Amino acid sequence: MTIITGHDAEGPIGFSCQSFYSVSVDPPLVSFSVMKTSTTYPRIRGTGTFAVNILSVSQETISNQFAGRGTDKWAGITWNPTNNANPILDGTLTWLDCIIHAEHDAGDHIIVIGHVNELGAPQIHQPDPLLYFKGQYRSLLPPSRTSS
């Protein structure tokens, strides 16, 4: 799971995003998809930049908080800015700061391509990533088996 973040004159902006992927190594491009009905993405678009926060397994609550509508997504969230002032959430597994490179219409979504200009992995010990598949959070570890 990822949280896409930005920062404009009104303050920090962000939303949960499960559709994120690498597009190109040279130049370094990444992409995410966002619903056309999003009220958050137009504010990010207006800044021309965004950050991708790749969540760790311990950040399920944060993922749920940013997925909600009509709530204060930033309540209790601590973060630090990138060089473009985009929020990097504390505890994030890794992050990328991007400049919007292109947008493509895709049915009820917009595919956003970003050019990576800064990245980091603040954790020394790398926990597992937070995964979301078939409507629920998942683990990279196989289910534990008990012997009979």
The stretches of 5 or more residues where confidence is low (pLDDT under 50) are none
CATH C-level category: Mainly Beta
For the termini, the CA-CA separation is 36 Å
The CATH superfamily turns out to be Electron Transport, Fmn-binding Protein, Chain A
Kindly report the average pLDDT value.
87
Beta-strand percentage range:
over 45%
Shape: globular
Q: Helix amount, in percent?
A: 10-25%
Task: Please tally the helical runs, counting DSSP H or I stretches of 4 or more residues.
Answer: 2
CATH architecture classification:
Roll
Structural class: mainly beta
Q: How do you describe this structure in short?
A:
By secondary structure, the protein is mainly β. It has helices spanning 41-47, 60-67, and strands at residues 2-8, 11-17, 20-24, 29-35, 49-54, 79-81, 87-89, 94-106, 109-120, 131-133, 136-138.
Defining traits:
7-stranded antiparallel sheet; 11 strands; mainly beta; 2 helices; globular; 148 residues
